[in-house]
Design goal:
Blueprint (H helix, E strand, L loop, with lengths): L1 H9 L6 H33 L2 H12 L1 H12 L4 H18 L3 H19 L6 H41 L1 H17 L4 H8 L3 H21 L1 H15 L5 H6 L5 H17 L19 H16 L7 H29 L11
């Protein structure tokens, strides 16, 4: 047993939730951002501006989401170069065979392939053959075996959530908004979760609402401590920057979470706010404005398919209120109440 532990330690194979559910999942979201999300943005700009080059580039970027996710996961697992490069094939196969649940298939399969590749790396004199062979063979074989079932299972879970949101928009609007918003602030990836579950429609709209509430909420309520720099880094970057402060004083999380519990059902019940763009956009909030852009691309797609006649002023009002105005206003009001009660003190929201 000690020999196994020593081997795993020497190979930097750390089998823990921290390594797989936080570091690998977070890296996968970056891979998604650098491929599918950027591709979607470029494609949308190209279509709206009539610039074919942007549409073409966007298509290429989006098509590489599988390899990008797998390589990002490999980086998070500290994979050697030969393993990392071999994960390109593994990511492509897993994402393609996983269908709508491709991201979840990539996460699980790339982790296994990367760790197996690390295990054999530099253990033989013909490493340049053995390491890529083991990584690719294990990854693709696993993809052929389980990617489709994983994808189908993820798709069914996502479909169930979306169906439940249609049936009970008030309750599910609150639950989806709060849960996905909290996931965005935690050191896990809400974007990867939404992508893996294919979360779109009303449920996707609630997820966007929850993420925006966290990001805009923390950005605005901490403005007095962090100024413009903090406003931008949290509002357009990530509310995860507040995790250290949350650990020290969990009460600072109450305001944006309460805001998400309000904006979520408003999104589903009042504005019928749907996110029909790329599912990963549902878990991005205002990070790079990807959430609102995803909603807009959904509108464009719906118009093209005939599902929607046109983008109305009510649509725009809903987006502005749900994504920006209400999260800012509600979080500030709740934060002011907490400051008055002594739950939040000066400096509790200060970023290092």
């Amino acid at each position: 047993m000690e020999n196994v532990k020593d081997f795993l330690k020497r190979k930097d194979i750390v089998i823990t939730p921290q390594r797989y559910l936080i570091e690998a999942l977070g890296a996968m979201a970056q891979g998604l951002f650098a491929s599918l999300l950027i591709g979607t943005i470029l494609n949308t700009l190209g279509q709206q501006l009539g610039v074919e080059a942007l549409t073409t580039i966007g298509g290429y970027a989006s098509s590489m989401s599988g390899p990008a996710m797998a390589c990002a996961i490999g980086c998070a697992l500290h994979a050697p170069n030969l393993v990392l490069f071999s994960l390109v094939t593994v990511g492509w196969a897993s994402n393609s065979l996983g269908g709508a649940g491709g991201p979840l298939a990539v996460l699980l399969i790339a982790i296994v392939a990367a760790e197996l590749g690390k295990a054999v790396s530099k253990e033989t004199k013909i490493d340049i053959l053995v390491t890529p062979l083991v990584t690719i063979f294990a990854g693709v074989a696993l993809a052929l075996l389980i990617a489709a079932p994983i994808g189908e299972a993820a798709n069914q879970v996502g479909t169930l959530i979306m169906w439940a949101t249609e049936q009970s928009p008030l309750v599910m609007g609150i639950l989806v908004s709060v849960i996905v918003g909290v996931a965005l602030t935690l050191p896990i990836s809400s974007a990867a979760i939404c992508a893996a579950l294919g979360l779109t429609g009303l449920a996707g709209g609630a997820a966007v609402a929850g993420c925006c509430a966290q990001m805009v909420g923390f950005a605005v309520m901490s403005y007095r401590e962090n100024g413009v720099g903090g406003l931008v880094s949290q509002g357009l970057g990530t509310s995860m920057l507040q995790m250290g402060n949350i650990v020290r004083n969990p009460r600072i999380w109450i305001a944006p979470t309460l805001a998400s519990a309000i904006t979520g059902p408003l999104a589903t019940c009042l504005f019928h706010f749907q996110m029909n763009g790329a599912a990963v956009s549902s878990g991005m909030g205002t990070c790079g404005l990807v959430g609102p852009i995803g909603v807009y691309t959904g509108w464009v797609s719906d118009i093209a398919s005939g599902a929607k006649a046109a983008i109305t002023p009510f649509d725009w009002a809903g987006m502005v209120l749900i994504c920006f105005v209400l999260p800012a206003l509600l979080s500030v009001l709740f934060c002011a109440a907490e400051r008055k009660m002594g739950w939040i003190k000066e400096g509790d929201l200060k970023l290092n």
